[in-house]
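Lab channel / #folding
Pinned by the channel admin:
"Please post every new chain as: sequence first, then the structure tokens as a reply. Keep commentary short and put observations after the output so the thread stays searchable."

First post following the new format, from NK:
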Amino acid sequence: MNKKIVVFLKIVVSLGLVVFLFDQVDFEKIVNILQNVNITIVIYSLILLIIQVFVATTRWFFVLKCQNIEISYGRVLQILWSGLFFNQAMPSSVGGDVIRGYYLKKQGITLGRATVGVLMDRLFGMLGLILLVLFSIPFVFELVNDSIARTGVLFITLGASFTLMFMFFTDKLPGNFSHLRIIKGFYALSKGARHCISNRFSGIIILILSLLLHIISVVAVMIISIGIGINIEWLGFFLIIPLVTLIMVVPVSIAGWGVREGAMVVGFSYLSVESEAALALSILYGLTILVVALPGGIIWAFKRSHTSRSAKSDSN
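Reply from TO:
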């Protein structure tokens, strides 16, 4: 019941934010922008985001190898894509990380190691994002003169940075709480993450792939913006999109819908982009991510039907 309430509240937040934004802009202008979008350009962005799935799979493959979890690349790809589908297309309490952990356990991995394997991948994703945001902050402060906006950006960035440091060094904090089950899990996550990042070969690859994943997202948005006629310097996208992604980390909506749109409208307003164009850009980007996630649903459905057939055969 509690999970259903959380999902309901997320849907309310997403719908509420979207309705509020549409109430503040010229709806007909947005429709006109979407009708005149260059579909070929959007397809280029779609292809780039599909490549991003394979990059994400490669990173997770190396993360799992750091834990001595040996799974084929193809299998890791199937699991990750199924998780992506649940993250983007399913407004349910079963998130993509749960799906990933479940299928790792089906591979014979213990629940604890499977959970750490998924969370560690998330942790490295956050590390790449924080590094990009920290790099962009000086440029953001040059661009934005609003003291409230500057304080908000600084607060979000510092909060995320401290959270990240806490996750990496939980086991080094004063006191021993390893007798608590949840703290024991955090200890395992911290030790595993530091082990991975300190490995000269795997650590460098994981860090590069983490940065590359977020750079691909920035370039994908940049490509879509060309398709709808937004003309701003490339640096502007590297200032806004990582911050938007960081804000979306807070799980208050369904797949970031509403939060992403609001953050993009506000962020791109500092680059003199009209609200209608920024909102249309965010909608197209969200739909493109959704399309990329759909093959994961096919993979999941196929695996589920195959499991059901196997179970029936065993019972017979």
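NK: Residues 275-315 form the longest helix (41 residues).
TO: also worth noting, The chain has a mean pLDDT of 87.
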